[in-house]
Amino acid sequence: xxxxxxxxxxxxxxxxxxxxxxxxxxxxxxxxxxxxxxxxxxxxxxxxxxxxxxxxxxxxxxxxxxxxxxxxxxxxxxxxxxxxxxxxxxxxxxxxxxxxxxxxxxxxxxxxxxxxxxxxxx
Length: 122
Fold this sequence. Notes:
The chain is an all-beta fold. The protein has strands spanning 4-7, 10-13, 18-24, 33-39, 46-51, 58-60, 68-73, 78-83, 92-99, 111-112, 116-121. Strand 4 (33-39) and strand 5 (46-51) form a beta hairpin. It is 0% helix and 48% strand. It is built from no helices and eleven strands.
């Protein structure tokens, strides 16, 4: 069992930055790939970024490529999403997830956090 808790969301102006954190419980953190997804009102949950369990390989949605960076710290059982040059269309609830399947698809994850709101004003 893995329990995930996100933090770091908030309100920021367009062009600004935020760093989201996701703290994971349990001793098996290093065995899971970790992903970030987001869901805006009226839209489906979409993949944002993911990092494989060894930390050596990452994946990003085209919409965030070059602006967002995903990383993980195994010593702290934490995964991060550094977001820069934020745009109003990045406004959504952001979720972290842990799993052993395909990074880019929600079905690849077994555990989900409760989400943190990110709002980008224009």
